[in-house]
Amino acid sequence: MVQTNTMEGSLFEPTLYIIKGMCILDNDGNRILAKYYDKNVLPTAKEQKAFEKNLFNKTHRANAEIIMLEGLTCVYKSNVDLFFYVMGSSHENELILQSVLNALYESVSILLRRNVEKRVLLDNLDAVMLAFDEICDGGVILDSDPGSVVSRAALRADDVPLAEQTVAQVLQSAKEQLKWSLLK
What we know:
The chain has helices at residues 6-11, 45-59, 94-111, 118-123, 125-135, 146-157, 167-183; strands at residues 19-26, 31-36, 66-69, 72-79, 82-89, 136-137, 140-141. By secondary structure, it is α+β, with helices and mostly antiparallel strands. Strands 2-1-5-4-3 form a five-stranded antiparallel beta sheet, sandwiched between helices. The longest helix is centred in the middle third of the chain and has 18 residues, at 94-111.
């Protein structure tokens, strides 16, 4: 029996964990919103911010849509004063990553009523965070249709803000969400 290195074997096995991270940076390269799903790639906030600065420096003047950086395939899109990024492993299919990027960008665009600017995004950050969660969970792509992402994010955004809820309301909401996720 031939043994393979488990590290090598895991690199090319099919997996649902496609997305390594998604982020939105401003036109100075500062983080507005970021989620990283693989703790082995960029485990600390310091490493993440250093990566984001490097990523921004390599892409903010470029007119390409894809870059390989530090072992990651990164697809990106800019608009006015924002940069949207989706990262996957170096062997990941760029079309899948581009599909997730388009879902992210279009969802944010719809949520912000086509006014995709830093100020408007910050005013609606809760809805944008919900869109992030509706698109990807733990690196697994959940949805790439902006219409359905927005409908679910908007539905959840209409709920009472978490800070204004009692502990009982938060627990009840969590029970309801768990119940609906199990029923699907």
